Amino acid sequence: MLNSSPTYDTQNMFARSILSLAVAVGFFISSANAVASIDIGPRAGYGYTMLPGSSVETPDDGWQVSGSGSDIWGHWDEFHYLHFNRTTDVTVTCLVKSFGPTTLESWRKGGIMIRNKTPGIDEQRMAMSMLQVTGWGVAQQSRLEDNSYSVSNHDHFDTENVWLRMVKVGNTVTSYVKRDGNFDYMRFGEEEVQFGPEFYVGLAVSSHERTLLATLDVKHFEISDEIYTQPGIPTEIGETGQRVSVQQVKEGIWSVQAGGAGIGGTADSFGLGGGSVW
């Protein structure tokens, strides 16, 4: 199982060793895991400009990624993207230390993004899924296919000292979160996204403002071939009124939170997770 203090897998060591050159000049490197740090946007033909973003490597497998842009939402996106090429299923993890400045709009977005790579499609409109911190919580926002409108699964949660994890298996992207110091992750959301044979993984930042930069500071950024899984899927039976949250707090000990009116009478309303009733 993947641990919560990850390091880079060996497949990415070469890309990391030459990434400083890549981000300095902003182009792809010809390798199995080409890497780039680029601005995506603004929309062509509208006369907009964006402050250029950047990516800087820091200790403890960390990155500081800065970006402007109007948003990552709707039919098209504006943001800065530090990313790596991938062709196989993947688990991506990082520990968010901070995301600011806090004076920016509350829908600033920074976090892990898995994004399609489709020749001939406007790069602003590609299918994607992003697990992000905002000014007020955490969200998994996705564009389920190229050129489509975005969908969102969001909730209030810590925005600093929080672990983010995204797992791509085929077209299924599952997101997980946990507070720093927790034993294991809590499943946050899942979407079916139409990816092609090649796609990108990395860190994305949009300040929600073209003239201002937001900066995401992460540690322990890892891209791994090992696929993280959890037993069972938390499920809402009936209308419970809140997310079903299941988290392993110690080895073999689980914490469960769920709403619901009860189990009995003519209709039930409860949380189901891990193959058992919680």
Mind explaining what this structure looks like?
With 278 residues, the chain is mainly beta. It contains 2 helices and 21 strands. The strands form 5 sheets. The chain has a 7-stranded antiparallel β-sheet with strand order 1-6-15-8-9-10-11. The protein has a 7-stranded antiparallel β-sheet with strand order 2-3-16-7-12-13-14, with no helix packed on it. The longest helix is centred in the first third of the chain and has 7 residues, at 19-25. The protein starts with 12 loop residues before the first helix and ends with a strand.
SSE topology sketch:
Blueprint: H1 13-17, H2 19-25, E1 35-40, E2 54-58, E3 62-67, E4 72-73, E5 76-77, E6 79-86, E7 90-100, E8 109-116, E9 128-133, E10 138-143, E11 150-155, E12 162-169, E13 172-179, E14 186-192, E15 199-206, E16 214-224, E17 235-237, E18 245-250, E19 253-257, E20 270-273, E21 276-277
Antiparallel strand pairs: 1-6, 2-3, 3-16, 4-5, 6-15, 7-12, 7-16, 8-9, 8-15, 9-10, 10-11, 12-13, 13-14, 17-20, 18-19, 20-21
